[in-house]
């Protein structure tokens, strides 16, 4: 029997990149998966179709996690479609880089609204449906350890993700709900291609600083999230795992 047979998982921001790989990995282990997206319906539908073609179950649900009504609706859709909720992966995130002198209110709120408020709103809505043995996995970033220049706001959001993870592990632990964070290093995705990271001096520098000698791929992160979603990690909660190939 697969590790997640009978489980229902919700993955936010799952229409591409790391989120899409997570959705596919969870489904491959037997979970019924809700593929949340904010704007890319075509991307989410493609992920759902791929999961179905492989014999899995999935549904695409639109919603902006930074809005309370949408966050509630996403969770309710998951329960309506599959009858319950066992796993929540808070993967939705945005990033922009700017030096101190270029930070604006818009720059700040855009990232905090999705990366931090969105995580809290979806988790708040999901917690009403999660029972004993449920798992919440928050996707942070290695920037919370690296502290790169011109990333003050983005790094602050991902540091907040780690802090929230610890707090919620304390709050939800008495209900036997586990909460952990995965902090990826640089990963090759549509987003890092668009941002110009892939094939750049930045990527080359990252590789030289990574003991395992390459940047990450979405499946590298997805396999760790799948482990945290499964009962194999039943004694892990409140942990911050750095998935970076050893880059520090």
TrEMBL record:
Chain ranges of the Ketoreductase domain: 7-189
Keyword Oxidoreductase belongs to the record: yes
Question: Which GO terms fall under molecular function for this chain's record?
Answer: glucose 1-dehydrogenase [NAD(P)+] activity
Question: Keyword annotations for this protein?
Answer: Oxidoreductase
The keyword Disulfide bond is annotated on this UniProt entry? no
- Which InterPro entries does the protein's record reference? KR_dom (IPR057326), NAD(P)-bd_dom_sf (IPR036291), Sc_DH/Rdtase_CS (IPR020904), SDR_fam (IPR002347)
For this protein, what is the EC number?
1.1.1.47
Enumerate the PROSITE patterns for this protein. ADH_SHORT
Sorted alphabetically, which PANTHER family does this protein's record hold? OXIDOREDUCTASE, SHORT-CHAIN DEHYDROGENASE/REDUCTASE FAMILY (AFU_ORTHOLOGUE AFUA_5G02870), SHORT-CHAIN DEHYDROGENASE_REDUCTASE FAMILY PROTEIN
The entry's family comment says:
Belongs to the short-chain dehydrogenases/reductases (SDR) family.
Identification of the protein by name: Glucose 1-dehydrogenase
Native source species: Rhodanobacter ginsengisoli
């Amino acid at each position: 029997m697969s590790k997640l047979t009978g489980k229902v998982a919700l993955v936010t921001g799952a229409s591409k990149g790391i989120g899409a790989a997570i959705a596919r990995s969870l489904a491959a282990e037997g979970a019924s998966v809700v593929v949340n997206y904010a704007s890319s319906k075509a991307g989410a539908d493609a992920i759902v179709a791929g999961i179905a073609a492989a014999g899995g179950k999935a549904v695409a649900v639109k919603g902006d996690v930074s809005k309370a009504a949408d966050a509630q609706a996403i969770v309710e859709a998951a329960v309506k479609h599959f009858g319950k909720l066992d796993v929540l992966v808070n993967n939705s995130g945005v990033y922009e880089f700017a030096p101190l002198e270029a930070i604006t209110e818009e720059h700040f709120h855009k990232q905090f609204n999705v990366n931090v408020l969105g995580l809290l709103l979806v988790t708040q809505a999901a917690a009403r449906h999660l029972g004993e043995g449920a798992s919440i996995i928050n996707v942070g970033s290695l920037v919370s350890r690296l502290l790169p220049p011109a990333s003050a706001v983005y790094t602050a959001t991902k540091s907040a993700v780690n802090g929230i993870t610890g707090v919620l592990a304390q709050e939800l632990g008495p209900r036997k709900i586990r909460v952990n964070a995965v902090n990826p290093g640089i990963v090759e995705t549509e987003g890092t291609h668009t941002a110009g990271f892939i094939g750049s001096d930045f990527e080359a520098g990252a590789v030289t600083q990574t003991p395992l000698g390459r940047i990450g791929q979405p499946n590298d992160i997805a396999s760790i999230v799948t482990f945290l979603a499964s009962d194999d990690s039943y004694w892990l909660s409140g942990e911050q795992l750095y998935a970076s190939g050893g880059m520090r």
